[in-house]
Structures
1.
Amino acid sequence: MSTYQTSKDRMAEKIAAFSKFGDLGNGGITRLSLSEPALAARAELKRRCEALGMTVTSDDIGNIYATWPGTEDLPRFVMGSHLDSVRSGGNYDGVYGVLSSLEAAETIITDGIKLRHPLTVMVWTNEEGARFEPAMMSSGIVMGKWTKEKMFAVVETGGTVTFGEALEASGWIGDGKNRLNPQDYCAYFEPHIEQGPVLEEEGLQIGVVEGVVGMVNYDIILEGVSSHAGTTPQHYRKDALRAASKTILDLWDKLGAIAPDLVFTTGEIHVKPNIHTVVPNYVKFSLDARHRDMAVLAQVVKVIEELPKDVYGCKLSYEEHWGRKTIEFDAQLLGFVEEATKALGYSYKKMYSGAGHDAQYVSEMLPAVMIFIPSKDGLSHTVVEYSSPEQCHEGANVLLNALIAADAAL
């Protein structure tokens, strides 16, 4: 199999150029959805795409589609990710997927590579959910996870502007007919940084992503009694924080025994009344558990359901917050990605993503696949997030060659 190469220098220039939008001066960015830096990044992407001769449109929720025609009247390939970031984020999460897709398209255009299928570079609006919750908002709207009307009414975190108002002011509201759909598109590719340590730890260049793992997310609540911190003897106390601490440690032991590759996290804790002189009477903490095998997650739920209802005199209850089933990506597209990786001589492994991505929603509508490149020290959503120019180049090469193989076969 002959292979094609993108430009390493162009790829590095793209990353450097877009790092200016929302630059914090410390190596990272804050580029919240539809903010001034995000709109500047969108304008620059549009400028670059139009300079290549691509046609740029948007849909009714601001998703961007930059298209290069094919030689035949066939459904389009679509590839991309998002341009928005979390607060104090990095220059690779999301944006790498857009820019490596643009680099693949630029190589096809400038090198005169003829594809039968039209090719679209896509940007999803508000993937991170850092300004407007939830994450993956626009792909969720497109796939019918929630209504546009409900999402347009979402108010920004810490502010007063709604998503609908911000989108209206952005100038990016287009035609609802332009939305991603199974009539006009036939395959979706999403390159991404791994956001974890596996590829780097194992010395591998590429992750061929087979799917996104399932997860469960619960809130666990302990209710006790507030009393004076100085006058209440220890044996009289119904301390909700003490009870929550024991419950978290017990959960850690029980969940850790289920499967070695089960991951689980308590990342959010609310304590009331949260006063240093008062015994806490209420604690709510989150439990996020993720695994490829839904049977393993069923065991997690069983552990939660069997928690004691009384812990140190405090009432325990729980609420399911949300969850998802494991998503399997398209086997044929996976084959194109794996064969491209082999042909390029890159080391790789098949793996699942522990993080959620727009591709998991798209996979319910179109054949979809993801390509991972390593993340330094496994870090993401931080200003020190980093993938080397060579790693960025290699991911773009895999995308390019997988596209060419898919074009010949589909």
2.
Amino acid sequence: MDQKQKNILIVIVVIGLLFWFLVPILNLLNFALFRIGIPILWFACLFSIWTTRKDTGIKVLWTIVICFSYLLGPLFWFFWGKRNT
């Protein structure tokens, strides 16, 4: 085995070890994002909706959109609805 093949083998082993150790950490981040972060985003979004000076019908409509869409509703509100409605 020449030096180039040894270097490629070392890189493959290092990437494999990093992947082996990073998968549990990525699973914890996934858990934190979707189990903790999204409900916080929902409450912040609902608080933002109900503290604006918009019509109550618009507030109810946005609340329904938020409650029936998991992640897209809050993102639509913060990036589009907050400014345009």
3.
Amino acid sequence: MAKPHFDQDLSGKVCIVTGASSGIGKEIARNLGRMGATVMMGSHDYSRGEEARLELVSDTKNQRLVFSELDLARQVSIRQFVGRFHELFDRLDILVHNAALWFPTKAESPDGFELVWAANVLGPHLLTKLLRDTLIKSAPSRVVFVSSNDAGGFDVDDTDFDRRSYSGDRSYRQSKHAVRLMSGAWSGHLAINGVQVNCCSPGSKFKTNLYRRASSLGNMMSRLTASPPAVGADTPTYVAVAPDLGAVTGKFFVGRKVVKDKLRRQDEMNGLWHLLEHQAAHLQRTRTDVMTEEEIEREKAEKERLKQQKPKAPQASFADLFNKPPTASESVEEPVEEEPEVEVEEEVEQEVEQEPEEEIKPVAVEHSGSLFVDSLMSGSDSSSFIPALQLEDHSKEPAAEPEAEKPAKPTSPTGQPLYMQYMKKFGKD
């Protein structure tokens, strides 16, 4: 029979329970929700997980239960789960690693590791790494790894069963052995930060969906002799919330009692830690999850926004002051980039050279006031004023009428023009 429920007040506490759509994980979430905690439930099956959440909300009368899809065999799903958690919460008081997988034949995870190892060992390790800073910020906080009595056979050099023969039971036992070692390694890394890390075994076999892929006869016999999931949830709940465990870390619990874990060896814990860190680094290098895609999409959206921005109108240059303003009938074109003044001056000189020399006539002495102002603002002296006047546009003025034939200049009896005689008179050639 299940022991009496705890009577702790967990109001304001934020918890995560993996494998919470059924079995022991669902009962752990129920216990935490009944004590008033905010619980984020994780499971790879969305429909079953959401159904379990609604059931627990109805049973505990606690509306602060959230479900989010979590497949611990896929790093993409793990990172999505953590991202969703950080969107909703800024603290984490209790993290319960309960999810487990048993598979009858050897299979490979999407990230290239043996499937059971990826789901039961590497996935929880990566999840803890991603939540580490939040756990430290929320200290005193707790991490609980749920292992099993059926554990053993860990081989740090052959976790993928490349050299050993594979079986579902052998792979599962190795993963639960590794979970015990992993909890001891994490306790050593987080103890100084006020985060307790302990491991526990729920007991014997329970009526869960762990062996749903086993043969129908074996699965049926297992269920006939199994205990209710609520019994198995008692020890993990105790390790997660018991007030008398405030300073206890790095221990192994069975039935609310600390027992010696004969499977823990320091050399194996160190070897497993280095292996998991190496595998986690490989996952980071090969990361192609939705967070990276979101960053790419944000960058594309920013570039598109900059393209659609209307460019600023360029400031008018000195040469633009001599251009004829557009009439009302002419359409206003979009502003274009202002060409350097040097290039404009070169173009003006070319245009002046192309015009016939006889058509360039000096302008009358009556200068407009604006031209004198422009000349002074440009810093030019009076000698630079005449070329500016030569730029006046006469292309649209009416064609000049042909001048009347002028009478011939008077000449002297000798046939020389009179002005030549005057010049000689004053001694000039």
4.
Amino acid sequence: MNIYELIQRLFTPLHIGRGTGVGLFSLMLATVSMAQTADPITPILGQIEQNNRRLQAAREALKADVLEIKATNNLDNPEVNYAHLFNSDRASQQQSELTVVQGFDFPTAYAARSKANKLEAHAAESSYMVERREVLLQAKQLCLDLIGLNREANLLHLLQHHADSLAHLCDTRLQSGDATALEANRAKLDLMAIRTELADNAAAHRAALQQLLAMNANVYIDRMVTDVYPATPTLPDYETLCDELLPQNKELQQADAVTRAAQKQVTVDKQGWLPRLQLGYRRNTAPTEQFNGFVVGGSLPLFANRSKVKASQARALSAQLFKEDITLTAEATLQALYNEAHSLREAMNAYDLPLMHQSFTLLGKALAGGQLTWHEYFVEMESLVRRGQSYIQLENRYQKVIAALYADKL
């Protein structure tokens, strides 16, 4: 196939399944708003959530934390004491004593601790959700990189095909005396540079795929062969986006859960000033008589609870201040990502894709009509491909920023 035939094919509609055909170049440089395809990323994220060792460890740690939190509100172990008393001078005079005692806190303390434990368990779950979001966002950005590399590889393969044709033509003309050795060498150097870029692209693709595989515990993942991004939401105004996304911010939810748990702990520690109680059974035996009775006791927390309330109040204040800091950071991050997304979108809109499409067509016609030499054609065509690469890289950055914006929805 010669270059003109390739150009003709480039803009001939390609039928994908039984749907509407699109041109090859249009497919490679499809705008984000037109990238409507079955989402290839969500199933992969589902696999990673199940198989990722970091998340599996976090889930087991969460189970352990929740169980430990529940254990803090259990009753104390019952105490059993037995004493056998004897007189070495009077072997017949022996006595024994059995005591069984159960200690417990003042009843209202259990109710307060139960509420505090629920809040602490929720804080632990919120911490897991932060971990989950970070893992899934990293995986999604790797998937987006793979799609971007696929799109770039398509353009580079197109450029390589042209460079191959040009190098072959120069060799043929060199043998017939119609081209110089300098022209032939230049064509070979251009081809070498493009092959190097393709090799770099393939290496980056393998590295990203290997990272994704490692995140899935080396469980097989279908290769990301698609070169079309999933659809992205249209950005509303900042205030609307802020109202939508800030309440879903996982770090903010975690900070809020920790704050509420710390505030409830103040109530629990105030209950610590109530006396601890003991109830039990006691049995004394002697050779001639036996006694049975109840044991009632208690302890006053004059020393053990000293400074605990002040400490819990300080922790509650610390948690509240940390939450305020997280809120400010979350708002600043959201604003920065929103601004970056808008800037990238404006930069993408500055690319006149229909004009680039038309330029490819005109270049092919000019080459076929003899208005351009092969080298002139290749230089112009390479320039257009480089612009396409720039657009693809810009588009990839935009996709990753949008992914970061909506990471809490993963």
